[in-house]
Amino acid sequence: MNFYALLAQSNAQSSANSASAGKSSFSMILILVLMFAVMYFVMIRPQKKKQKEEQTMRDSIQIGDEITTIGGIIGRVVTVKDDSLIIETGADRNKMKITRWAVSTNNTAAEKAEAERQAAKEAQEAEKQARMEEAREKSESKRKKTKKNKDEE
Fold first, then answer.
1. How far apart are CA 78 and CA 62, in angstroms?
2. Hey, where are the domains in the chain?
3. Burial of 85: CB neighbours in 10 Å, binned 0-12, 13-18, 19+
4. Residue 68: its H or E element
5. pLDDT per residue as tens, the chain (153 positions)
6. Cα angle for residues 79, 71, 43 (degrees, 5° grid)
7. CA–CA gap between residue 97 and residue 85 (Å, rounded)
C-alpha cells in the first residue's frame, strides 16, 4: 500500500512539473526572442544602415571628386566605370585603377556637406541674433512707455 501511495504522489508531482515546464519553456523562448530583437536593433540594423550609406556614397562618385581609398591613397577621379575608377595621385599625376569598394571616403562630398552644415549653423545664429535684437527693441519700447506713463502721473 505504501508503494501505491508513493506512485500516486509522484504522478501528481510529475503532472505539476510538466505544467511548470511548459511555462518555463515558453518564458525561455520569449527571452530568446527578446534577446534576438535587442541584438538586431543594437548591432545588425546600424551596420546595415552604415553599409547602405557607404554604397550610396560609392555610387554617387563623379569625375573630379577627391577620394580617399581604404589604403589611404588620396586622388582625384578621372574616369568612372561600372565597378572601377581611375584616379590621379600626386603632383606628377600618376594614374591608378581601383575598384569602387576600395573607396573609403569622398572628400569632395564631405567638404560640401560640411559647408552646408556650416551655412545652416550660421543661418541659425543670424536668426537667433535677429530674435534677440527684436526682443531687446520690444523691451526698450516697453521701458520707455512705462517711464513716460510714470512721468505723466
1. 9
2. 1-59, 60-152
3. buried
4. strand 66-69
5. 565 565 566 555 555 555 566 678 888 899 999 999 999 999 999 999 999 999 999 999 999 999 999 999 999 999 999 899 999 998 888 999 999 999 999 988 778 888 888 888 999 999 999 899 888 888 888 777 777 776 666
6. 105
7. 6
Q: Are 61 and 103 in contact (CB under 8 A)?
A: yes
Answer whether 104's CB lies under 8 Å from 114's CB: no
As a CATH number, domain 60-152 is 2.30.30.60
pTM of the entire predicted model: 0.54
Rounded Cα–Cα distance for residues 87 and 73 (Å) = 10
Cell readout for 56 is 550610396
* 83 close to 124: Cβ distance less than 8 angstroms: no
